[in-house]
Design a protein that fits this description.
- The protein is α/β, with parallel strands linked by helices.
- It has a single domain, classed as Rossmann fold (3-Layer(aba) Sandwich).
- Helix content is 26%, strand content 26%.
- β7, α5 and β8 form a beta-alpha-beta unit.
- α2 packs across α3 and α3 crosses α4.
- The termini are far apart.
- The relative contact order is 0.20.
Length: 236
């Protein structure tokens, strides 16, 4: 069974007499263990596509299915469970630590406090951010914020991660490391749907598609193809 299926999605934004077509008959399938990247220029609708795919924003027409279930009929139950939508860490108060932020969402879902801390610490270690545990959320740099966002989602053991522009605001020297981390998570059978406004961020993806004028172009269903290679790290 296909894990995520977008079927003929359409969405328009209207402001007065002006109408902008964001999604126009978009279809896409994502399987477990796939890393699918959607490239688009500014205002192409790539971020909107990801919000619709995660069940955050409803389309005007079409269906989003997760593990065969219509997201519109799930009342948001999949978001934060089977689907992990990665948002960058909020600029919280100086008293709020990364560990605090990662446990809040779990506590809201009824996870005991001790268990939530264990899961949070394990998730931070998994993404290489163990040293951020006791730091303030406001102290994180771009790379650390992405890793913490991934850890927050991974703590709930999702089957699908949706992440918008994971390398935006990340130092150039750290971008390849973030892409390699995403590739490693996909290799662990987690499906990943990401967006990017930069072609260099497509490295490591199983499929790279483009979105413009509401149309999604490229191979929208899984096929046997070589993974786009990650750039080799420079020696030294």
């Amino acid at each position: 069974m296909t894990l995520l299926e977008l079927d003929n999605l359409s969405l328009r934004y209207r402001r007065g007499s002006h109408e902008r077509v964001v999604l126009d008959g978009v279809s896409l399938q994502v399987e477990r263990g796939e890393l699918v990247a959607v490239w688009g220029m500014r205002r192409s609708g790539r971020s909107t596509l990801l919000r619709v795919a995660a069940g955050i924003e409803p389309p005007d027409a079409g269906v989003v299915r997760f593990a065969g279930r219509d997201l519109a009929a799930s009342a948001g139950d999949e978001l934060g469970g089977g689907i992990g939508y990665c948002r960058l860490a909020q600029r919280g108060s100086e008293a709020q630590t990364v560990l605090d932020e990662l446990t809040v969402g779990q506590l809201a879902r009824g996870v005991p406090q001790a268990t939530s801390r264990e899961l949070a610490c394990a998730a931070l270690e998994r993404v290489g951010a163990s040293d951020c545990t006791a730091r303030g959320v406001h102290e994180l740099d771009g790379s650390e914020a992405v890793r913490v966002a991934l850890a927050r989602a991974l703590a709930l053991e999702p089957a699908l991660l949706v992440i918008d522009e994971p390398t935006k605001g990340v130092d150039l020297l750290e971008r390849d490391n973030i892409l390699a981390l995403l590739r490693s998570l996909a290799d662990e059978r987690i499906a990943i749907l990401m967006s990017s406004g930069e072609a260099t961020a497509l490295a490591g993806a199983d499929r790279a598609l483009s979105l413009s004028a509401g149309k999604l172009r490229g191979s929208t269903s899984p096929e046997l193809a070589e993974v786009l290679p990650l750039r080799r790290q420079a020696d030294g």
